[in-house]
Amino acid sequence: MNEMVRKTQAAATDTSLDPQDWNAFRALAHRMLDETIDGIANIRARPVWQPIPDDVRAAFKADVPREASDLADVYREFAEHVAPYATGNVHPGFMGWVHGGGTAVGMLAEMLAAGLNANLGGRDHMPIEVERQIVDWMRRLFAFPESASGIFVTGTSMANLMAVLVARTSALGTPARQYGIGNDGALLTAYTSRAAHGCVSRAMDIAGLGTDALRKIDVDTDHRIDVAALRAQIAVDREVGFKPFLVVASAGTVDIGAIDDLKAIAELCREEGIWFHVDGAFGALAILAPELAPVLGGIELADSIALDFHKWGQVPYDAGFLLVRDGEQHRQAFAQPAAYLSREARGLAAGAVWPCDLGPDLSRGFRALKTWFTLKTFGTDRLGAVIARSCALAKYLEARVLAEPRLELLAPVNLNIVCFRYRADDAVNREIVADVQESGIAAPSGTTLDGKFAIRAAIVNHRTDETDIDALVAAILDFGARRVGDGVIEIEAPPLAAQ
């Protein structure tokens, strides 16, 4: 018997994935942490982005690792082949897309969350209370009632999909979850602007309603949805027998950061009995900046709001969020009875509404912790100041563009996004964007506005300042002049690219 116990203990030791030498593990872990912090602290010494060398890419075609490797060797491979070729949004020169810069505080919180390894699908444990506290904070910020509900998701694409599903259930009733959308569901129509993010169409697709059921309404000269045209389209659809059920307004459009007239849309939706959802992926958090909050007037009237803390909130990826005015309607769209999810009066299975009742995921990470750390550590006043600062930097870039004859502004600067171009054709401007990215100096992106290719600078990173704006402009003028001059240029290796 004792021999059997010894063998069982030995087998357990052999199969445990804990380090055999905790002191050596601790030393390497501290080194990893130190070098990661150094990388953030000295980020300006690195290129914003650099292309992945062929040999590095090829190294990641290797077969499945069957044998164990030393952790130090795995870390070395990460440090040499992964970290140098990341997206670059930690760098202040990253202005291509609306990606937050993250913070060292958020990084530590992510580490702590991983240590807890908590599943936030449900049950009675403190990590869920942390998430509930943030839901309560969001209710207060957006003046939603106490009955409102909220949930962390991967990002606003998922939050928008979930809002469509909640609105669909509200329109068709809960039987639609069992029997399908049926004939009534086939008549449902939703509305958004032509400037809305593509994930809204995708949400209609995934929800089974079809992209043709989404009416894309024209925008005005400020790229906001034409409310009169919206009203007219709803009337036409009702006249022919369709059932309007949802309007998705934008609080910060993807191309130029335009904010729809939320008050007017809220009033229209109330008159028509239509669910009013706001896609506020990054713009909704302008509520934190007193000088910007008024442009969101009417958002407090929404039935649901989608937003990302990993954008203007500077929380490390990913940390999306959905807030729903009527918590019971939210629950009815997702809650599903199951024996293994039964609630008890006491013990670990106690509790009322679990997060799995408010979304499709049973397994959920502790996204709330890094958001909680960020909000608690910096406070909403400081975060609001960061948001206002990024908008001020956009105005600075706008002034630089307007003062430079070789550049052309292509859209009004609403918040933090500036769309402009070098005075040359689309092909030249596309090459300029790639030239600047490959130089490692800055990372703008491109889009198309009114048929013209635009260089797009989205200023989100809390580290960005005027020197980064100046470097972007100088690089665009330099590469533009060389492109127009002879059409062929050599891109110099960015700093540290060879290291």
TrEMBL record:
InterPro entries: Aromatic_deC, PyrdxlP-dep_de-COase, PyrdxlP-dep_Trfase, PyrdxlP-dep_Trfase_major, PyrdxlP-dep_Trfase_small, Pyridoxal-P_BS. It comes from the Bacteria. GO terms for biological process: amino acid metabolic process; carboxylic acid metabolic process. The modification N6-(pyridoxal phosphate)lysine is found at K311. The lineage of its organism: Bacteria, Pseudomonadati, Pseudomonadota, Alphaproteobacteria, Hyphomicrobiales. Its cofactor is pyridoxal 5'-phosphate. Pfam families: Pyridoxal_deC. Belongs to the group II decarboxylase family. CDD domains: DOPA_deC_like. This is Cytochrome D ubiquinol oxidase subunit I. Keywords: Decarboxylase, Lyase, Pyridoxal phosphate. The keyword Lyase applies. GO terms for molecular function: carboxy-lyase activity; pyridoxal phosphate binding.
